[in-house]
Design goal:
By secondary structure, the protein is of the alpha/beta class. The protein folds into 3 domains: about 180 residues, FAD/NAD(P)-binding domain; about 120 residues, FAD/NAD(P)-binding domain (3-Layer(bba) Sandwich); about 110 residues, Enolase-like, domain 1. Strand 20 and strand 21 form a beta hairpin.
Length: about 500
């Protein structure tokens, strides 16, 4: 078990002491030079997503001259093809499901079109807000394809930018399905442009994007088959919670196929045939098939790096293909930094934002406290939702070296929300703790309230939360969160 989460003899050190950094680099600052062949800046940021915008605005707030380059719409994946539109579609799906189940609403296409209209309006509002905030901060925004031609020089169209520091924050894109006919599959990026929903859909993948899309679309009346390569959903989440989520999705009509290898897609008569093998079946070589109206591939994401010219600079890569960086987010090329989805780290918007702000503080301010990237809350916006922070049971046992050193508190209950809807699908709260010190190492929740609860619990875990703190805290009733504090 790590000292940071399991030490029983000392209080946890504060994040800035644990993550103490070497002295800051000195970076000259000033207004871009008006003369000369290049447009000059202290900081050139390539990528206008969550990471890039956060870094650019924070650097500008410290007086640095900043140029932000974006080839597409400002806001990146989060605003345009990820967090924001996905969560809004999920809200719409929940309302459509409630109306369909309780009030005999029409559901389906009408609900989807209404949701897409609302999503599009919110995205337009966010685009305008981002541009206004960047302008007010003094960040120069350039639209175009950027490439790093040499250390300190970035080419955007016919213009060359010269910068003391350059940041790569170009994000990631969905990985294409690598099988014959794989081009027939849509990706999560495409979903937000659909003008209607198919009657049936095969989702390939078992991670959070696949699970969220399967859950969302099934609530819009789509018949969904989820083809998962592994033996369970959400391999990076706690197994108990992931298994319970699978059971809940089945109860809501999603058909799950585990240990599957998709081998080919083909199209005929307006339908797509999905061929796959089932490794845990009676005959692993037997080829099964599904005929659906559409296929969605959600098998992972890959960094967007191919157009930046980094190979010519011999920028070091990790085994994953992402850029290799040190703890200050420096690449192997002097003056070139990288953050967000292009490096090996959790692909989460708040992580990217925290990285961008901390890097800008370190480069352009006199002091900086490194965020705690060891305790990061995360959520899966399915129905029911999953919220997780800290160690899973498997991670805690591995860190401790013995299951006897780890305690587990597991509570199953049916929430009032579910009972009102006539559902008996149970919610789960799982607490992982050090058996000796009672220090809480991880909290994992399956319930629609889970994302909001684990955000608060992230602070509590960082501050050394113990079971006794939960047991002696007066609870709020009736609520899902009160189940954290022991039996009623």
């Amino acid at each position: 078990m790590s000292r940071r989460q399991g030490d029983t003899g000392h209080e946890r050190q504060s994040a800035y002491k644990v993550s103490a950094e070497p002295r800051m680099e000195h970076v000259p600052r000033g207004k871009p030079a008006k003369a000369g062949p290049y447009r000059q800046a202290d900081f050139v940021v390539i990528g206008g997503g969550s990471a890039g915008v956060a870094a650019a605005m924070r650097a500008a707030s410290h007086g640095a001259s900043v140029i932000l380059v974006e080839r597409d719409r400002i806001g990146g994946t989060c605003v345009n093809r990820g967090c924001i539109p996905k969560k809004m579609l999920s809200y719409g799906a929940s309302l459509a499901s409630i109306l369909s189940g309780c009030l005999a609403h029409t559901g389906g296409r009408e609900d989807w079109n209404d949701a897409i209209t609302r999503v599009t309006a919110e995205m337009a509002r966010l685009h305008a807000s981002y541009k206004q905030r960047l302008q007010e901060a003094g960040v120069q925004l350039l639209h175009g394809e950027a490439s790093v031609v040499s250390p300190g020089f970035v080419q955007v169209g016919n213009e060359t930018l010269q910068a003391w520091r350059t940041l790569i924050a170009t994000g990631s894109r969905p990985t294409a399905l690598p099988v014959p006919g794989g081009e027939l599959a849509a990706t999560s990026d495409d979903v937000f442009g659909w003008t209607g929903v198919p009657a049936s859909l095969a989702v390939v993948g078992g991670g959070y994007i696949a699970v969220e899309m399967a859950s969302i679309l099934s609530r819009y009346g789509v018949k969904v088959d989820l083809l998962v390569r592994g033996p369970r959903l959400l391999e990076n989440f706690d197994e108990t919670i992931a298994t319970a989520l699978g059971e809940a999705l089945r109860a809501k009509g999603v058909r799950l196929h585990f240990n599957t290898d998709v081998t080919m897609l083909s199209q005929s008569n307006g339908a797509t045939e999905v061929c796959y093998r089932q490794r845990d079946g009676a005959d692993p070589q037997h080829v099964h098939s599904l005929r659906v109206q559409a296929v969605l591939a959600a098998i992972g994401r890959e960094p967007v790096l191919d157009t930046l010219g980094l190979d010519a600079l011999d920028v070091a890569r990790a085994e994953s293909g992402n850029l290799r960086v040190d703890r200050q987010f420096r690449t192997s090329v002097r003056g070139l930094h990288a953050i967000g989805d292009v490096i090996d780290c959790p692909q989460l918007t708040p992580v990217a934002i925290a990285q961008g702000r901390w890097l800008a503080d370190r480069l352009f301010a006199r002091s900086s406290e490194r965020p705690d990237f060891d305790v990061v809350p995360t959520a899966v916006f399915s129905e029911p939702a999953v919220g997780s922070v800290g160690m899973t049971e498997a991670q805690a046992v591995q860190a401790a070296g013995s299951a006897a050193r780890i305690g587990v508190s597991l509570r199953r209950f049916v929430s009032l929300e579910s009972r009102f809807a006539g559902s008996t699908i149970p919610s789960l709260i799982k607490i992982i703790y050090n058996a000796r010190s009672q220090r809480v190492l991880g909290i994992h929740i399956l319930d629609n309230a889970a994302p909001e609860i684990v955000q608060a619990m992230a602070v509590a875990i960082r501050l050394g939360l113990r079971l006794s703190h939960l047991e002696t805290t007066v609870r709020l009733h009736p609520s899902v969160a009160e189940e954290l504090f022991g039996p009623v």
